[in-house]
Amino acid sequence: MRRAHLLLIPALLVLLALPVSRGRYNDDFDDGEDIADFDDNDFAEFEDMNDDPAAEAETAPPPRASPSSQPEEEEDEDEATVELDDGLDGFEDSETQDQDIYSKYDQEEFEVTGDMEKPGHSMKDPLIIHTVPAHLQNSWESYYMEILMVTGLLAYIMNYLIGKNKNSRLAQAWFNSHRELLESNFALVGDDGTSKDAVSTGKLNQENEHIYNLWCSGRVCCEGMLIQLKFLKRQDLLNVLARMMRPAGDQVQIKVTLNEDDMDTFVFAVGTKKTMAKLQKEMQDLSEFCGDKPKSGAKYGLPDSLSILSEMGEVTDGVMDNKMVHYITNHAEKIESIHFSDQFSGPKVMQEEGQPLKLPETKKTLLFTFNVPGKGNPSPKDMDSLLPLMNMVIYSIDKVKKLRLNREGKMKADRNRARVEENFLKQTHAQRQEAAQTRREEKKRAEKERIMNEEDPERQRRLEEAAQRRDQKKIEKKQMKMKQIKVKAM
Amino acid sequence: MSFNNMSDPRRQTKILRYKAPSTDTNPTLEDPTPDYMNLLGMIFSMCGLMLKLKWCAWIAVYCSFISFANSRSSEDTKQMMSSFMLSISAVVMSYLQNPQPMSPPW
What we know:
The structure holds two protein chains of two kinds.
Chain A: H1 2-35, H2 70-90, H3 93-124, H4 144-185, E1 188-189, E2 205-206, E3 211-219, E4 222-230, H5 237-245, E5 251-257, E6 267-272, H6 273-282, H7 284-289, E7 295-296, E8 306-310, H8 313-319, H9 322-330, E9 335-344, E10 363-371, H10 387-402, H11 407-427, H12 429-453, H13 457-489
Antiparallel strand pairs in A: 1-3, 2-3, 3-4, 4-5, 5-10, 6-8, 6-9, 7-8, 9-10
Chain B: H1 33-51, H2 54-70, H3 77-97
Helix pairs in contact in B: 1-2, 1-3, 2-3
């Protein structure tokens, strides 16, 4: 295809040159009209009766395909006249004829040439220089869109490498500053679940280019602790651009799972106002057990920016002891939310077929969400400032183990849980009934099939009879129940 | 922060292995970006190949890059590579069939 382009340019040049040279041939033919008899040049047959006064008198065959220029033509004319003079000397008869004609032509030419020269040239040789269309140009400039695209891709790749590097450095910095504390508290620090033996890997588990996990286990008072470093997607250029509109920050999420006897029954949360409102709507346990709106933390000495969601006042008093308040007040800007719950089951699950048939699985959990300081652009040193918060986490684990509600509180808590369960059962009553009905029908069908498949007619009969008796008994039982209810009602 | 310095809180016997949280229980926690981008990339590259649209092919390349950047490390690299190759082949084929430069839509 490129060769085609290369051929086009000389072709275009040839095309441009042709009208010029054709003009000269015409001039030649005009003159040759009379000389045709005498001059047996190749162009005799092309002679034309051309009265155009702008026709130049040229007897000599003009140079072919050469760009015409005025001085050259004038020279030819001069030459022509000189030649004529020479020619006329030879022949007398034709000479006069020729002379007349030629003088006529010469005069006309000399008269008119001066005026007509320039327009003649412009009429004869209209040199309109068109610009070559972009798609025929053989230059890189026409591919500017492609170059833009490739530049964009390169920018994306550069950002990917830089972002990935930054996230990795931040994660490593965090781990280096927290390693000692974790290793002194947990027997197993770092596990990806794949190795055969429970040996500490001693390093973070990279889930993504922006999420790092660390699993710690082997401690009193808890089953294990999962730490998730949720960084911003610095490796994705689109995300970087989106963040310029909507600033966000890196987060560290810690989830401590506890054994049954590690925690008493209570639900409690403290955090920023916005987060508390969001959690109360989203979280299953907070929405069920902490019905009241979040209260300001000022009553307990916390800064105004934080609010508290609690099952009952006693829980708040129990959790918010001096040390806790001290921790939270000192690092209030880094705390997003702290959530202690014995009924934790995650966020509310929206199911298509209405309510789920079973109560969701609950687990005794402590959840912490911390914001990394630096507002989206932290330095590795900022990771050190999160160390006191990890101390707070460890302290909370020990504290929750020791925290016990008094008798009243325990009764209230138990009542709450019973209430929640009842509500749930009521809501799903209809569905559970339906499910039970279908199960019963399934069983009957299976039994009938068994009887049918039974080959021995004796056994068949016996099984049928047994089934009939069972049905009869059920009907009798139901009738008894109805009678009892009727009696009670009366 | 002083623990009871006499006792070490670590317990070798209480070690529990890490179990990756299953995605069935938490469908909201998963980021759908890499999957969507993968799908988009494939659609655009097919459009670019079939309809000979250069800009489709370029967008497909971008989509597959974005999908790769957002992907989880546990994800199959074969999927990523196949999406890359498909989008690059769409670009190359568009230019082989029609080497004229792409014209902007405005």
